[in-house]
Structures are given as structure tokens and as C-alpha cells.
Amino acid sequence: MPSMTSQVRHALERHDIAVCDGYWNALRGLDDESYLPNSQLMHDINAAMFSQPRVAALRFERHSQHEASGSRFIEAVARRFVDDANLQAQLLNHADDEARHCRMFAALAARFAGDAPRNETIHPVETGEDNIELFNGDLANFLISTHTAEVRNLTILTQYGRILAASQHLEGDRARQVIDRIHEDEMRHVAYTAAYVSRELERSAKAHELFSVYTDSYVRDAWAEVSAISGNLARLTRGQ
Ligand SMILES: [Fe+2]
Ligand SMILES: [Fe+2]
């Protein structure tokens, strides 16, 4: 698998963002095979998913929902909790990007689903507005959580791009263009949030703790994805 550190380094160089040494230390664990989002196992599961377009369609629908709730949450935090005009503008742009990704993933889902009936097992995810009521205003925590999620997104999209580049699927080329576009945006999200996260890592031990807590939580999320994709593969491959 391509090293996460080098993917992030590339994103930061592209956007001219410098970070402290502690940042690179915090990132180090992400190059281990135990960081499931960037593992060979996850890559193989994703490749199997793309071999069954209807299964890929279901994942694109989940991505679309997560992008929508992420967009609403980021926008709500920016408007209600952020005084710094520069950070607020960056977050509002970010929220717009995620809303656009929501629509792009929904369009991909529709293309990959073809004329298959829409899946009734997808439940609407909690909305950002619901979560914002629980948000305690801890911006450092929010930025670390957002940043680690964006790093995870970069990994997922890099894998999709590699798999689609080798795919024979009719929608493969078009899907790769969409994924590449989203990947570009996610690099920008990784880069600008890294600048804030680096500052937090420099001044607080708690920031290091939060960084690994969130990274671990995205490993658990990835296991849930492995389980969901495997279940859908078993269900939708049966009877073909
Ligand atoms: Fe996104
Ligand atoms: Fe993003």
C-alpha cells in the first residue's frame, strides 16, 4: 500500500503547509498494516466491492450520506462556534465541498446501481444538526477529529482510484474522474486542517491523545465497512 505519510506529505506540499515534527510522529502509526483503512485487506475488500457494481452502489450511497451529514456539521460549527474569520471561511468552503461530494457520490451510486431496486437496508444517518446539539464547543477536538477523518478519506479515495484504474467496468473511467476530483478536494481539507492540528500537537499532550483516539475510531469504522461490504457481497452475489 502507498504510505499514508507520503500521501499526506504530498497534500501538504501541494498546499504549501508546514507542520511540526510532532505531527509526523502522530501520523507514524498510519503506515502500519494494523491501520485498516490503508491495509491490503481493505484494498482487497474494495476490489471485490467494485467487481459487483450494486455493492459499490451501496457504499457510494453511504459515502453520500456521510458527506451530507459532515457538511451540515462543519457548517453548523463554523457559524455557531468559530470567531476567527479566516478559519470560519475555510470551514464554510469545506462544508460546500462536502455538500458537492454528497451529490457526486449519489450520482455515482445511481450509475452503479443501474436498474437495481434501491436498497431498503440503508437507513438515513444521524443528521449534522442532531449532533451539533451535543457539541461542547471544543474546537481543537473538532479540528483533530475532522483532520483524522480527512486523512482516512484520502486513503479510501486513493484505493478507489487505483482499483478503478485497473477495472474493466463500463463506468470505471467516469467513476475515476469523479473520485479524482473528490480526492483533490480532500487533499485540500487534509492540508488546511493539518496547520491547525500541528499547532495543537505542539502545545498539548491531550491533542496527541485525541489524535490516536480518533485514528483508532476510524479503524473500528473500517471494520464495520468490511462487515457491511462482505454482507452485501454475500447477499447480492447469491442467486446470480
Ligand atoms: Fe468529502
Ligand atoms: Fe473532506
Secondary-structure-based class equals mainly alpha
* Small molecules (ligands, ions, cofactors) in the structure: fe (ii) ion
Oligomer category: single chain
Sheet with the most strands? Answer: none
Rg from C-alpha positions?
Answer: 18 Å
How many angstroms does the end-to-end distance come to? 32 Å
**Overall pLDDT score:** 89
Global outline: globular
Quick summary:
77% of the residues lie in helices and 0% in strands. With 240 residues, the chain is an all-alpha fold. It binds fe (ii) ion (2 copies).
What does this entry look like structurally?
It contains 9 helices and no strands. The protein has one domain (4-234): Heme Oxygenase, Chain A. The model is unreliable at 120-124 (pLDDT under 50). The longest helix has 33 residues, at 205-237. The chain is an all-alpha fold. The chain has helices spanning 4-14, 21-27, 40-51, 53-81, 85-113, 128-132, 139-165, 172-203, 205-237. It is globular, with a radius of gyration of 18 Å. One fe (ii) ion binds at residues 67, 98, 101, 153, 182, 186.
